[in-house]
Amino acid sequence: MGRVKAVNEFGLDAEIAERRNANYPHEEEKQAQAWIETVLGVQFDKEFGEYLQNGVVLCHLMNTVQPGKIKKIYEGTMPFKLRENISAFVRGCREMGVPEGDLFTTEALFEQKDIATVVLGLFAFSRAIQTNKSINFKGPILGAKVQPKGVMDGFKNVNPNATVAAQNMGSSGVMEKTVHEDVREKIKTEEL
């Protein structure tokens, strides 16, 4: 699976790699792989990061979601061109509304330095597909279904027309009454 590779076997690089590997989203990687395989009708024949490394699959994924979004997909072996594939996908994600903090870098994928950010970036890509109204993708989604704005799970029987939170209901009448009574008194005494 997408393990972080240490530059050196010992020292700080090895410790950082070990920590990242301990927190690696293995289950999410499996879900992302299954999603890509389903959407594109392909079967991964390498590890997750290696299969996506040249950016070709990501470009096809983007074009499946938004036909024609990425005009040129390079399928050769020249590294700088392969990096352009990854950059095109990330640029497309940005244009779709994926938050900057959820995007991965070209280096993270191409150099296989941080595949976890790629996995999480794909989840953010799926959320953007669901929330961007200009995208008409009817295929499967990755991760939890995004609820329409204003809809929150777990809050049943809440009056959408309520103006005062139930916790504050007891004091709301007192505050309003006090203000109105003061104004009325000033009107009666012609102070206003």
Question: How would you summarize the topology of this molecule?
Answer:
Layout: H1 12-22, H2 26-40, H3 48-52, H4 56-65, H5 79-96, H6 106-110, H7 115-131, H8 169-188
- Beta-strand residue percentage: under 5%
H-E string: HHHHHHHH
* Helix-strand category: mainly alpha
Question: Taking all residues together, what is the mean pLDDT?
Answer: 83
Radius of gyration: 26 Å
* Distance from first to last alpha carbon: 76 Å
Mind describing the biggest β-sheet? Answer: none
Number of strands: 0
The outline comes out as extended
Write structural notes for this entry.
This protein has 192 residues and is an all-alpha fold. The protein is built from eight helices and no strands. The chain has helices at 12-22, 26-40, 48-52, 56-65, 79-96, 106-110, 115-131, 169-188. The protein is extended, with a radius of gyration of 26 Å.
